[in-house]
Amino acid sequence: MFNTVFKRLVSVYLVVILIIFAVLGVSMMKMFENYYFEKKSEALIAEGQKLNSTVIKYLNNQVTYERLGIEMESIERFLNAKIWIIDKMGYVYGVSSRSETKWIGRQLTEGDIVNVLKGNVVAKRGSYDEYFGGPVMTVGIPIFINGRVENGIFMHSPIYEIKETLNETYKIIIYSMLISMVIAVVLLYFISQKISKPIKEINEITKVIASGEFNKRVSIMSKDEIGQLAISFNHMAVELDRLEEMRKGFIADVSHELRTPLTLIKGYVKGLMDVQLSEERKEEYLDIIYKETDRLTELINNLLDLSKMESGKNMLNVEKFDINELIRRNIINYSNKLEDKDINVEANFKFDPVLVMADKESISQVISNLVDNAIKFMNNGGCLFIDTDIKEDKALISIKDTGIGISEEDLNNIWQRFYKGDKSRSRQVKGTGLGLSIVKEIIKSHNEQIWVESKAGEGTVFSFTLSLCNNE
Fold first, then answer.
1. Whether pTM exceeds 0.70
2. pLDDT at position 419, please?
């Protein structure tokens, strides 16, 4: 029944509106009822206070009973209230109309009468219903003579008159609530549609993207949370589209990387099968086959290493070692390549030794990859600068080259898997495009930072941090 967001929104909002209107309606009715009774009791008390002085004059023989009766009759007509006047013993000796003469001489023992004779003003409902055959509102006022309560005035107004007035008020409230509810439901429908429609659109586009069409986008321009979700969704679609293009590019690159050595290996193996091949040529062929299989092994190892790192299965063997010494050893390993391209190496160790806590083998791989990259993209006679320093309780390692540099467009993508910037050069420079991704994952696994600064034609500098050894 509630299988869509739209239905749930409408149902929830409708229940909330009904509850609010019900509570509001009951509260308003109760408030108006109390207000009306309060004003009615104030009017009765006010008129009773005026009558009070006339009763005192009557008791002092300053006015006749007829005069008192006329005033009580006028108040009864004005307020539609029956009036009793009682003495301090609780006997009724004055009434507002001839129909009430049956009460004259009767002693009343109600708690309200006792309360009034004690000097208190009483205003309540329901105490004298049995006397009048219907619900009435009663106000009791004490009459003070020389500071003592000598008499009391009781005024009884039938509630049916009040109820009729309140019923008209209730009708206005109910009609207003019904009109407001209809307007609220209409607004609710359109608001719910506005909320659920973009969600449905996002859902449909999601299905399309899931089928492989990454060029689809959500066309929602609102600035609320739904609009922000649409922006995030479109950003995700852009990233998926970009990753898909990178995946296709990677497949092409890897296919090329695999096809070339395999083709060479196949050709030279076939050549080795020639019985007339000289021993010298056989050794040359075997050397080529060995180098090509080495390239395949490097590619596969890089893929496996990256997969292991990204899955979190690469356990770090953290130990204390001198980062300067590790750099020296890596430079020695690349001495042949450096000599082949006549590259000069300048090491600037501001502190020596610099003891760090890290996985020595992994950091060696980081340095090796960065140095290898620098050599690949430097022309003959270039210069390689390697610096180490200590800043903010961290070891800072920088590897700078005077190579071709990296364009601003490629600078944001070099950490991506299988990414190769200059496609024309990527065919000339050996590599899988995985080296920097591996470097990034290794530094990330150490909870450290790595960044790059470069300008096309001016060279590149890679910098990363490592934790210092506390016992240094």
1. no
2. 61
